[in-house]
Design goal:
The complex is a heterodimer of chains A (about 120) and B (about 110). In chain A, strands 2, 4, 5, 6, 9, 10 and 11 form a seven-stranded mixed sheet that branches. In chain A, strands 1-3-8-7 form a four-stranded antiparallel sheet, with no helix packed on it. Chain A is mainly β. Chain A has strands spanning about 5, 10-15, 20-25, 30-40, 45-50, 55-60, 65-75, 75-80, 90-95, 105-110, 110-115. Chain A is globular, with a radius of gyration of 13 Å. Chain A starts with a strand and ends with a strand. Chain B is mainly β. Chain B has strands spanning about 5, 10-15, 20-25, 30-40, 45-50, 55-60, 60-65, 70-75, 85-95, 100, 105-110. In chain B, the strands form two sheets. In chain B, strands 2, 4, 5, 9, 10 and 11 form a six-stranded mixed sheet that branches. Classes of the chains: A mainly beta (about 120), B mainly beta (about 110). The interface of A and B includes residues 32, 43, 93, 108 and 109 of A.
Chain lengths: ~120, ~110
Amino acid sequence: GAVVSQHPSRVICKSGTSVKIECRSLDFQATTMFWYRQFPKQSLMLMATSNEGSKATYEQGVEKDKFLINHASLTLSTLTVTSAHPEDSSFYICSARDGQGNNSPLHFGNGTRLTVT
Amino acid sequence: GENVEQHPSTLSVQEGDSAVIKCTYSDSASNYFPWYKQELGKGPQLIIDIRSNVGEKKDQRIAVTLNKTAKHFSLHITETQPEDSAVYFCAASTSGTYKYIFGTGTRLKVLA
Protein backbone atom coordinates (compact mmCIF):
# COMPACT_ATOMS: atom_id res chain seq x y z
CA GLY A 1 0.00 0.00 0.00
CA ALA A 2 0.91 3.64 -0.33
CA VAL A 3 3.33 4.82 2.36
CA VAL A 4 3.99 8.36 3.43
CA SER A 5 7.05 8.90 5.59
CA GLN A 6 7.43 11.97 7.78
CA HIS A 7 10.57 13.08 9.59
CA PRO A 8 11.32 13.88 12.31
CA SER A 9 8.63 12.35 14.51
CA ARG A 10 9.46 14.70 17.37
CA VAL A 11 11.41 17.91 17.59
CA ILE A 12 12.06 20.40 20.33
CA CYS A 13 13.41 23.80 19.43
CA LYS A 14 13.97 27.16 21.05
CA SER A 15 11.90 30.24 20.31
CA GLY A 16 13.16 32.13 17.31
CA THR A 17 14.71 29.18 15.55
CA SER A 18 13.42 27.43 12.43
CA VAL A 19 12.43 23.82 12.05
CA LYS A 20 12.14 21.79 8.86
CA ILE A 21 9.79 18.83 8.54
CA GLU A 22 10.08 16.41 5.62
CA CYS A 23 7.31 14.43 3.99
CA ARG A 24 8.09 11.70 1.49
CA SER A 25 5.92 9.43 -0.59
CA LEU A 26 7.85 6.16 -0.56
CA ASP A 27 6.22 4.04 -3.23
CA PHE A 28 4.31 6.48 -5.36
CA GLN A 29 4.67 9.89 -6.89
CA ALA A 30 2.67 12.74 -5.49
CA THR A 31 2.22 15.94 -7.46
CA THR A 32 0.19 17.26 -4.56
CA MET A 33 0.80 16.93 -0.85
CA PHE A 34 -1.16 18.42 2.00
CA TRP A 35 -0.02 19.78 5.35
CA TYR A 36 -2.30 19.60 8.36
CA ARG A 37 -2.05 20.84 11.91
CA GLN A 38 -3.73 19.10 14.79
CA PHE A 39 -4.22 20.46 18.30
CA PRO A 40 -4.72 18.04 21.21
CA LYS A 41 -8.03 16.22 21.02
CA GLN A 42 -9.08 18.18 17.96
CA SER A 43 -9.57 17.51 14.30
CA LEU A 44 -7.14 18.03 11.47
CA MET A 45 -6.92 21.53 10.07
CA LEU A 46 -5.64 21.91 6.54
CA MET A 47 -2.83 24.45 6.43
CA ALA A 48 -1.72 24.34 2.83
CA THR A 49 -1.62 22.37 -0.37
CA SER A 50 1.86 21.70 -1.67
CA ASN A 51 2.20 21.53 -5.44
CA GLU A 52 5.25 20.03 -7.11
CA GLY A 53 7.09 22.64 -9.12
CA SER A 54 4.88 25.55 -8.15
CA LYS A 55 3.87 27.65 -5.18
CA ALA A 56 1.90 26.20 -2.34
CA THR A 57 -1.70 27.20 -1.78
CA TYR A 58 -2.36 28.34 1.77
CA GLU A 59 -5.63 28.19 3.64
CA GLN A 60 -7.14 31.35 5.01
CA GLY A 61 -5.44 32.48 8.18
CA VAL A 62 -2.21 30.54 7.60
CA GLU A 63 0.86 32.77 7.30
CA LYS A 64 2.82 31.70 4.24
CA ASP A 65 5.95 33.52 5.40
CA LYS A 66 5.86 31.63 8.67
CA PHE A 67 5.13 28.20 7.26
CA LEU A 68 7.35 27.81 4.21
CA ILE A 69 6.53 24.93 1.93
CA ASN A 70 8.77 23.51 -0.75
CA HIS A 71 7.78 20.67 -3.06
CA ALA A 72 10.89 20.20 -5.15
CA SER A 73 10.26 16.68 -6.37
CA LEU A 74 7.40 14.25 -6.91
CA THR A 75 8.24 12.42 -3.69
CA LEU A 76 9.28 15.15 -1.26
CA SER A 77 7.60 18.14 0.32
CA THR A 78 9.05 20.12 3.22
CA LEU A 79 7.43 22.41 5.75
CA THR A 80 9.65 24.92 7.51
CA VAL A 81 8.32 26.65 10.58
CA THR A 82 10.27 29.90 10.69
CA SER A 83 11.01 31.94 13.79
CA ALA A 84 9.09 29.45 15.88
CA HIS A 85 7.15 30.54 18.96
CA PRO A 86 5.57 28.46 21.71
CA GLU A 87 2.14 28.88 20.11
CA ASP A 88 3.49 27.02 17.08
CA SER A 89 3.80 23.91 19.23
CA SER A 90 1.49 21.35 17.69
CA PHE A 91 1.22 18.07 15.82
CA TYR A 92 1.94 18.56 12.12
CA ILE A 93 0.86 15.88 9.69
CA CYS A 94 1.49 15.61 5.98
CA SER A 95 -0.47 13.60 3.47
CA ALA A 96 -0.32 12.69 -0.17
CA ARG A 97 -2.81 11.44 -2.67
CA ASP A 98 -2.13 8.14 -4.35
CA GLY A 99 -3.51 8.67 -7.83
CA GLN A 100 -5.26 11.41 -9.72
CA GLY A 101 -8.50 13.12 -8.94
CA ASN A 102 -10.22 13.96 -5.70
CA ASN A 103 -11.55 10.43 -5.34
CA SER A 104 -8.13 8.96 -4.73
CA PRO A 105 -7.27 7.95 -1.17
CA LEU A 106 -5.26 10.35 0.94
CA HIS A 107 -2.48 8.71 2.90
CA PHE A 108 -0.98 10.31 5.98
CA GLY A 109 2.44 10.34 7.53
CA ASN A 110 2.85 9.60 11.22
CA GLY A 111 3.10 13.24 12.13
CA THR A 112 5.69 15.47 13.75
CA ARG A 113 5.22 16.71 17.27
CA LEU A 114 6.81 20.14 17.51
CA THR A 115 7.52 21.66 20.89
CA VAL A 116 8.84 25.22 21.01
CA THR A 117 10.38 26.23 24.30
CA GLY B 1 -17.98 25.72 1.84
CA GLU B 2 -18.30 22.16 3.00
CA ASN B 3 -19.00 21.45 6.65
CA VAL B 4 -18.81 17.99 8.22
CA GLU B 5 -20.37 17.21 11.57
CA GLN B 6 -19.55 14.03 13.46
CA HIS B 7 -21.28 12.34 16.40
CA PRO B 8 -20.75 11.20 19.03
CA SER B 9 -17.54 12.81 20.24
CA THR B 10 -16.89 9.90 22.59
CA LEU B 11 -18.21 6.37 22.54
CA SER B 12 -17.64 3.51 24.96
CA VAL B 13 -18.74 -0.01 24.14
CA GLN B 14 -18.21 -3.43 25.62
CA GLU B 15 -15.94 -5.78 23.76
CA GLY B 16 -17.95 -7.71 21.21
CA ASP B 17 -20.64 -5.06 20.86
CA SER B 18 -21.13 -2.89 17.79
CA ALA B 19 -20.15 0.76 17.43
CA VAL B 20 -21.75 3.29 15.11
CA ILE B 21 -20.37 6.72 14.27
CA LYS B 22 -22.37 9.17 12.18
CA CYS B 23 -21.39 12.10 10.01
CA THR B 24 -23.37 14.65 8.07
CA TYR B 25 -22.10 16.90 5.31
CA SER B 26 -23.46 20.05 3.77
CA ASP B 27 -22.17 20.17 0.19
CA SER B 28 -24.20 18.01 -2.18
CA ALA B 29 -21.25 18.07 -4.59
CA SER B 30 -19.16 15.95 -2.22
CA ASN B 31 -18.69 12.52 -3.74
CA TYR B 32 -16.02 10.71 -1.75
CA PHE B 33 -16.19 9.83 1.92
CA PRO B 34 -13.23 8.18 3.67
CA TRP B 35 -12.93 7.10 7.28
CA TYR B 36 -9.66 7.29 9.21
CA LYS B 37 -8.47 5.71 12.43
CA GLN B 38 -5.91 7.60 14.47
CA GLU B 39 -4.03 5.99 17.29
CA LEU B 40 -2.27 8.04 19.94
CA GLY B 41 0.77 9.86 18.60
CA LYS B 42 0.31 8.60 15.05
CA GLY B 43 -1.09 9.89 11.79
CA PRO B 44 -4.56 8.89 10.58
CA GLN B 45 -4.84 5.59 8.75
CA LEU B 46 -7.46 5.00 6.07
CA ILE B 47 -9.74 2.15 7.10
CA ILE B 48 -12.57 2.31 4.60
CA ASP B 49 -14.04 4.68 2.05
CA ILE B 50 -17.18 5.02 -0.02
CA ARG B 51 -18.02 6.86 -3.21
CA SER B 52 -21.28 8.60 -3.91
CA ASN B 53 -22.45 6.03 -6.47
CA VAL B 54 -22.51 3.33 -3.77
CA GLY B 55 -24.84 3.03 -0.80
CA GLU B 56 -22.91 0.60 1.32
CA LYS B 57 -19.47 -0.96 1.52
CA LYS B 58 -18.18 -3.64 3.85
CA ASP B 59 -14.72 -4.89 4.76
CA GLN B 60 -14.76 -7.65 7.35
CA ARG B 61 -15.94 -6.08 10.63
CA ILE B 62 -16.15 -2.58 9.22
CA ALA B 63 -18.92 -1.17 7.05
CA VAL B 64 -19.87 2.26 5.81
CA THR B 65 -23.29 3.41 4.63
CA LEU B 66 -24.12 6.51 2.65
CA ASN B 67 -27.42 8.31 2.30
CA LYS B 68 -26.95 10.97 -0.36
CA THR B 69 -30.45 12.36 -0.03
CA ALA B 70 -30.04 13.03 3.66
CA LYS B 71 -26.33 13.85 3.24
CA HIS B 72 -25.12 11.57 5.94
CA PHE B 73 -22.84 8.58 6.18
CA SER B 74 -22.02 6.20 8.99
CA LEU B 75 -19.25 3.88 10.12
CA HIS B 76 -20.26 0.55 11.64
CA ILE B 77 -17.82 -1.63 13.53
CA THR B 78 -19.09 -5.03 14.62
CA GLU B 79 -17.62 -7.43 17.17
CA THR B 80 -15.47 -4.66 18.58
CA GLN B 81 -12.10 -5.51 20.06
CA PRO B 82 -9.85 -3.53 22.45
CA GLU B 83 -7.50 -2.74 19.56
CA ASP B 84 -10.34 -0.87 17.87
CA SER B 85 -9.94 1.80 20.56
CA ALA B 86 -8.77 4.96 18.80
CA VAL B 87 -10.04 8.25 17.42
CA TYR B 88 -12.04 7.93 14.23
CA PHE B 89 -12.45 10.74 11.72
CA CYS B 90 -14.84 10.96 8.81
CA ALA B 91 -14.14 13.21 5.86
CA ALA B 92 -15.84 14.50 2.76
CA SER B 93 -14.12 15.38 -0.46
CA THR B 94 -15.74 18.01 -2.62
CA SER B 95 -15.51 17.70 -6.37
CA GLY B 96 -12.96 19.93 -7.99
CA THR B 97 -11.22 21.12 -4.83
CA TYR B 98 -9.18 17.99 -4.00
CA LYS B 99 -9.55 18.92 -0.34
CA TYR B 100 -10.75 16.76 2.49
CA ILE B 101 -12.96 18.35 5.12
CA PHE B 102 -12.71 16.34 8.33
CA GLY B 103 -15.26 15.75 11.03
CA THR B 104 -14.40 16.57 14.61
CA GLY B 105 -13.51 13.00 15.53
CA THR B 106 -14.94 10.27 17.75
CA ARG B 107 -12.94 8.78 20.56
CA LEU B 108 -13.92 5.11 20.72
CA LYS B 109 -13.15 3.04 23.80
CA VAL B 110 -13.71 -0.68 23.71
CA LEU B 111 -13.92 -2.04 27.22
CA ALA B 112 -12.57 -5.52 27.79
